[in-house]
Specification:
Blueprint: H1 5-31, H2 39-57, E1 61-65, H3 77-81, E2 82-86, H4 100-114, H5 117-123, E3 128-134, H6 141-152, E4 155-158, H7 167-175, E5 181-185, H8 188-192, H9 203-209, H10 221-224, E6 240-246, H11 254-257, E7 264-267, H12 273-284, H13 293-310, H14 317-326, H15 332-356
Parallel strand pairs: 1-4, 3-6, 3-7, 4-5, 5-6
Antiparallel strand pairs: 1-2
Helix pairs in contact: 1-2, 12-13, 12-14, 13-15, 14-15
Length: 357
């Protein structure tokens, strides 16, 4: 197969980076009086460095499943089943507007997961982890998924289940995903019709209008907890994360939520003080407002007032971001004042509604 100009360029950059890293390691070893016992020890080290460099230099992708995809058996099966687009979302764990303890816990859990290959291999289990993200719309579920992909340097597979006709098709799609990927199923309550079957009254209509349950959750690696090799590959050597999202966790079938179905269930809530400060930094800058004592004092006054109001008024991070975006160019203090005014108005409406009950 003839190499394209782009492939030649990437290969050239990769070789240059590898040569630099190898020379660096050579010098360090010589300076510290270290040496490799033989090429048998040194060559694996070089190959590992090359693999890590290739991973960092590659363009990451966002994949979506094709509704008319073919079978997974030939060399072009992946391209037949999945369409790709460049993935360049700016979200990181430092820019997430969420509770700091929850954010740090998720990051630690992810880093621990990707380091535990030997644990999964020894246990004979698939190297996978499943998250269920739930909360009202606008609480940051999509941003968290992007931050996870950026942290782990994984591709994203956006799996649209409404186009999948059978368990066989689902298994084919999953088998054709690549290592180091996040498989995302958004709005799982809408995609699978996994509504709570124990409810009645108003939920009956939702059940009648739900998509047919032509798929079973056991086909997902995190759901069935199956052994390594169940997807026709050495899956214990292939790291994957699967993330489900829903705005209405209360509508899901309890069987979906029982222990063992999901590794972690993460609730994303309304905006509070710490999230507000992250959003202010993201949208208003890091202290680039009036650099005077009075300006700084007023900034803290407004942030403090907004924090107090957010304890009484439910506003999502997306709502706060929209206020800040609408004040672009007006200055930081004007944006914060607009947020405080909006929150004060909502609090008045909220109190009036409560008094009418």
């Amino acid at each position: 197969m003839r190499a394209t100009a782009r492939e030649i360029e990437v290969a050239s950059h990769t070789k240059s980076a590898m040569d630099t890293d190898i020379q660096s390691n050579h010098c360090t070893a010589r300076e510290e009086g270290l040496s490799f016992a033989s090429y048998d020890a040194y060559i694996p080290h070089v190959l590992d460095v090359a693999a890590r460099l290739r991973l960092k230099m590659r363009e990451r992708k966002l994949y979506t499943n094709n509704s008319d995809g073919g079978g997974c058996g030939g060399p072009d099966a992946h391209e037949m089943l999945w369409s790709s687009h460049p993935f360049a979302h700016p979200s990181t764990f430092d820019t997430l507007a969420m509770d700091p303890a929850l954010r740090d816990g998720i990051r630690a859990d992810l880093l621990r997961f990707v380091r535990r290959r030997e644990h999964y291999t020894r246990a004979g289990r698939a190297w996978k982890r499943g998250y269920l993200l739930h909360g009202p719309p606008g609480t940051g579920k999509t941003s968290l998924i992007a931050a996870i992909a950026n942290l782990l340097e994984f591709d994203i597979y956006d799996l649209e289940l409404t186009t999948v006709q059978s368990n066989t098709d689902l298994r084919r799609l999953l088998a054709c995903t690549r290592p180091k990927s996040v498989i995302v199923v958004e709005d799982i309550d809408c995609s699978l019709g996994f509504l709570d079957r124990t409810t009645s009254t108003d939920d009956a209509e939702r059940r009648d209008n739900a998509p047919p349950r032509h798929l079973t959750m056991s086909r997902f690696p995190p759901m069935g907890g199956g052994p390594a090799g169940m997807y026709g590959e050495k899956i214990s050597l292939v790291v994957r994360l699967i993330v489900f999202t829903t705005n209405h966790v209360d509508r899901l079938d309890p069987a979906l939520l029982r222990p063992g179905r999901m590794d972690r269930k993460i609730e994303l809530g309304y905006c509070k003080g710490p999230a507000l400060r992250v959003l202010a930094k993201n949208y208003l800058g890091d202290g680039d407002f009036e650099l005077t004592t009075n300006g700084g004092h007023r900034y803290e006054e407004l942030v403090g007032e907004a924090e107090r109001l957010l304890e009484e008024v439910q506003l999502t991070p997306a709502d706060v971001a929209e206020v800040f975006m609408g004040c672009d160019g007006d200055g930081d203090l004007a944006a914060l004042q607009k947020l405080v005014d909006d929150l004060s108005s909502k609090r008045v409406v909220q109190k009036c509604a409560a008094s009418d009950v």
